[in-house]
Amino acid sequence: MTDAILPNGIKDSGRDGSYFKKGCNPFAQTGRSKLQSKRASVNQQIIKQMRMRAGAENLLKATSNNKVKEMVLLELSYVNSNLQLLMGQLEGLNSSVEVYQNTQETANIPIIALGLKETKDVDFSTPFKDIILEHYSEDGNSFEDEIADLMDLRQACRTPSRNEAGVELLAKYFSHLPLMESRFFSPTRLTGIFFTWYDSFTGVPVCQQNLSLEKASILFNMAALYSQIGTRSDRQTIVGLEEAISSFQKAAGILNHLKETFTHTPSYDMSPAMLSMLIRMMLAQAQECLFEKTALPGIRNQFFSLLKMAQEAAKVSEIYDQVHQSMIQTPIKDNVPFFWSTMSQVKTNHYRSMAHYFVASAMLDHQLGPSDDEDQQEKTLSQVYDCLPEGRSPLDILKKKDERERIGKAHIRRAILGHEEALRIYSLCHHLNKLEVLQDILKASHKRSLNKYTENEREEEFTDYMEAPDIISKTEHRAEMEVPATTKVKVTDFFQRLGPLSVFSAKQRWTAPRTIRLCPEDRDLGFTLKSETPVQVVSLDPLCPAAADGLKEGDYIVAVGDTDCKWMGVSEVMRLLKDVNEEGIDIQVVSMMDSNPPMVYQSLFSFLLAERKFTCMASLIDT
């Protein structure tokens, strides 16, 4: 189930040789890629059924014929039934956690990975060429390679490899989006480009013309990819666990950045409530891996070590309980797979039971001896409990063998009950039942607790109904959100030939290039240049020949002769002008205009924008 870079055997106009972009492999037939293909297919079927439902509902409103109404209602019930089945299939795909696990993983509880959001193809070619011609006064056809490179990059982001190269690929495209936005997306101009992304849980499509949805969806997929890297890590090694911990913390950090930056995303899988739940889940899984890292070298059968592990396990249980509580809130519970909430509930009970087992082992397997540090043991035990049974103190429990055994058995009984509850919840979800590894771990833990209880059971003993107190959760290494450096990848603007963004952007307006004839008098041009790119004309002599030919104060020089100089500084432009003879040389200049369009245009734009929003879904259905 690894993602490899494979030669595609097809030349691609020389841009990338005969290989796919680094970090992308659309032909890798892994379990993960097949799952993603199935998800895309289900999304398309959901769209088809939603179109049919929308048509039937419109017909139901329009008709007054009772026979037609009966037929439409029957069709609606059929369509709704199909939609429910498709939603169930999508939930099943989101529950297929075994696809993302390490192939050698047989001793750890499976961890949940997020699936990538699916999108539709976008053709930038015609709209961008039109904008380049109309707005930038350049030949749009001369930018075909740049537009193709951008479209190739977006297409590659649909099938990223499950490693840092895949994350970097997504980050690279994400870093290009603000540049693309500045170049082509003006608040006063409609591009006609629709970005469509599917909700990763429900498959419902969301369509927008601005880049907010595109940016948010790429961030979501970066977090999803990190979660998949985390689940694939080998958790039987320290290195693998560290990779998993880092990956889940990075996933949480990106999701948190998404929540804080894009607060009004129309897709529910990226709503603040859903993202908050996903952040908790990623941190819970990171905390679980931190626990496994602590336990990997082996848990010493010593009083202090056992109590420490008890509190560490209680912390994992506590965080998973918070995850479960957030999953069962409306409307999250209607969108999250039942498998997820069941898994979090199973882990809550499992790790809580482990905590009680560790305390029971500390109480039953160890007695306070003459050489033991009584004060230290008392202090440690007092920090394990929030409150003790009435009339008992930590020192009493430590010194009195009977009390120590009573509370130890109370903990082991609670551990047994917790393991039984975890197994019961496990049996309620048929998707969980496919995870034999999980069942084996739960049964082994339950058997271990039963054995511990049997070892310390005495026939003459009366039944003791003492309730074991709750264990205070505590950890030495708390999982924290981490924003990876890869979210800020430095990239080169595909369309830098259009000029510096400080001047040549979608929100700025300027005149068409004008040709000015420069004829120096005694090597004096009649103006000076401001040291920026592009260079700007300042201190213009109104009586010089250039001014008479139409040069204005504040004009930007974009070409000298046949040389484009949008990116040239003063020294470079002056080098081109210094050897100009008496015949002179032609330069091209542009003048900045008011960026605010006339009121009539604004009214027309508002009308068109409203019309676009109204027809967005219709356009989606047609495509």
Verbal overview:
- The chain is built from 17 helices and 10 strands.
- The protein is mainly α and 623 residues long.
- Helix 9 (303-327) runs antiparallel to helix 10 (338-365).
Strand order of the largest sheet: 4-9-7-8
Backbone CA Rg: 33 Å
Instruction: List segments where confidence is low: pLDDT < 50 over at least 5 consecutive residues.
Output: 1-19, 599-623
* Content-based structural category: mainly alpha
- The geometry reads as elongated
- The helix fraction, in percent, is 40-55%
- End-to-end separation: 34 Å
Q: What is the number of strand segments? A: 10
- Biggest β-sheet, characterized? 4 strands, antiparallel
Provide the β-strand percentage band. 5-15%
Instruction: Name the helix and strand elements from N-terminus to C-terminus, one letter apiece.
Output: HHHHHEEHHHHHHHHHEEEEHEEHEEH
Q: Number of helix segments?
A: 17
| Overall pLDDT | 84
What is the topology?
Layout: H1 31-62, H2 66-94, H3 125-134, H4 144-156, H5 164-184, E1 195-198, E2 205-208, H6 212-232, H7 238-261, H8 272-295, H9 303-327, H10 338-365, H11 374-382, H12 394-399, H13 401-428, H14 436-455, E3 509-510, E4 514-518, E5 528-530, E6 536-538, H15 545-548, E7 556-560, E8 563-564, H16 570-577, E9 585-590, E10 592-593, H17 599-622
Antiparallel strand pairs: 1-2, 3-10, 4-9, 5-6, 7-8, 7-9
